[in-house]
Write a structure and sequence with these properties.
The strands form 2 sheets. A 6-stranded mixed beta sheet has the order 6-7-8-3-9-10. It has a domain at 47-70 and 100-234: 3-Layer(aba) Sandwich (Rossmann fold). The longest helix is centred in the C-terminal third of the chain and has 18 residues, at 189-206. It has helices at 61-68, 91-101, 117-122, 133-143, 159-171, 189-206; strands spanning 19-30, 33-45, 50-54, 76-81, 84-85, 102-106, 177-181, 209-214, 225-230, 233-234. Helix 4 packs across helix 5 (159-171) and helix 5 runs parallel beside helix 6. Strand 4 and strand 5 form a beta hairpin. With 235 residues, it is an alpha/beta fold. The structure holds adenosine-5'-diphosphate (ADP) and magnesium ion.
Length: 235
Amino acid sequence: MKSDSRTSEREDATTEPILALSNVVRRYETGGETVVALDHVSFDARSGGFVSVMGPSGSGKSTMLNLLGLLDTPDEGQVLLDGRDVTGLDDEARTAERKRSIGFVFQSFFLLPTLTAVENVELPTLFGTDPTRRERAVDLLERVGLGDRLDHRPAELSGGQKQRVAIARALVNEPRLVLADEPTGNLDRETGATILDEFRRIADEQNVAVVAVTHDPQLSDYVDRTVELVDGQVR
Ligand SMILES: Nc1ncnc2c1ncn2[C@@H]1O[C@H](COP(=O)(O)OP(=O)(O)O)[C@@H](O)[C@H]1O
Ligand SMILES: [Mg+2]
């Protein structure tokens, strides 16, 4: 599966991007100094596309993921969700949009140690009243190959299994965009490959847009395109 044969045609370029950054600038002020973490960056995520964002430490990757995840707002430029400008929304409205559309997978998994795998996957739905949530959680864990680990707690799972629980959890509210920060960062190469297969499958079969921020060159074998960040700019 080399990158030449996996073309950007997999991304549905005919539809509007799910999420887009248009000329965004994000600055941080610390101790009287200004750091320009993102310097006029434009980017979009489309259905069925798996995109990696690469760059050295400090290049602005996490800042970009936070903007894509509606966890943060830019100082300049716009954030567009389904073509709608959501830049100026207040926290509450932004959170509602985020819950409706976006799932997150983090490097350190963030699973609750006292809950079983299936309970961890159900967690993002617990404040709703959806009676099918257990069924959905089981279904998702089966899909990521953990049907026989439903009642295991995180301490009883390997790193790769924990990451797959985290992926299942990110999918439980049926997001159209999945954002991952260093999803293979804590995994050996082979386990990382199974996780990347999983992201590729989510993009191909469920038409989800996946954006992964990473140092891992292995991702280039799986993604439709790579965006390179250097000093807050897309190269
Ligand atoms: N909360 C913050 N306050 C001040 N500076 C920050 C903050 N977050 C990030 N930065 C700075 O912004 C730049 C980009 O950081 P970040 O987005 O975390 O990069 P990466 O994820 O690529 O390592 C770095 O110079 C970093 O020091
Ligand atoms: Mg980072």
